[in-house]
Fold:
Amino acid sequence: MAALSERIVITSAGVICSIGAGLEQFEQALYDGTSGLQNSTFCGDQIVTAEVRDFTPQLWLGNKGIRVLDRSARLLCVSAHMALDRSGFLASEQPERDPELGMICGTMFGGLHSIVSFDWSGLTEGPAYVNPMAFPNTVINSPAGQAAIKFKLRGINSTVCAGLASGLYAIEYGAESLRFGRARVLLAGGVEELCEESIIGFQRADVTSRSGSIRPFQGDADGTVLGEGAAMLTLETAESATARGAKPLAEISGFGCAHDATSTNAYQARAEGATAAIEQALEAAKIQPGQVGCIIAGANGSRAGDDMEARSLRNVFRSDIDALPVSAPKAAFGEAMGASGALCALAGAIAIGKRIAPPTIASGSSERNLRLSSKPQPFEKDFVLVNAFNCDGNNASLVLKRWIE
Structure:
């Protein structure tokens, strides 16, 4: 096993979402202010979503084994392929991979369409007529399991379910596993697919935008727009990265989480859990609020959710929040549910490397007096805060640090 290590770094990443496939395309679209929101192909053109359009996983995975993978597994496998390839761990000629190479995946629903289709078939046609080949896709850890089989990942394989915060929790789980020597290299992040069932479910919960836009922290925000995608970050110890000559994108410096045990479907107005999560993350990183250069917000256009996050930021940063660059990238790639935390963490890693906060699409003057901008915002400090807060009470915050040798 790897030796106990305090420093965990992100050395590469794979990503596919509504604004692009691959790290370079994702970064370019993010800083260009490209929107992934378009009329849906799942539920008719009267509904706006942030889908992965013209998704052709064969471009990365080939044809072998594709048929048995559902959409969420395909998205995850594509992002894992990219991350492994960029890291140099995709040597297909190896019959067996490193037993200390594994995956931690966050998701909200897993393969929801597969689950519904299998259950509906059993209910309408009878248990004797269900397709047994479809059953493996109905368990929530199926995408991570399928990816492990596809890429011969013999190490840790875990799935984390924590609503919209799943992706951040998965990254922290991976970082802790590395710190305690349980693995040498881990892919960590999140995946979520869009399907008719998830779209209808969120509509009935009355959280989707009627205008078909995401306006984070804005007074005229009327809800969120669902997205999908996958982001896998390659995590390893600083010692491992240095030994193989890899240049880290960023260092994982601190994590905090807290739960508001008040409701399963409502944000906590006083933001006690969200505030505690941010404070814990800063304490774990051994920094003061004034050392943070940029905030990657989890704001998704929900009035209640954005209000809670804004309150938590003001609770922690006080008047300093007025001058602190804030970016809400979900305005670009939608609310990707279990993948959102990982997508935001990747945006944070890119931001700390460039020392430029990504723009927030169509942001006007925030009624919460937050420093949002439709243009990139430079900053000088070495830390970025990434938030992921959920209406079920799960609150998570991650601190990323600019890599310094």
Q: What stands out?
A: The chain has a mean pLDDT of 93.
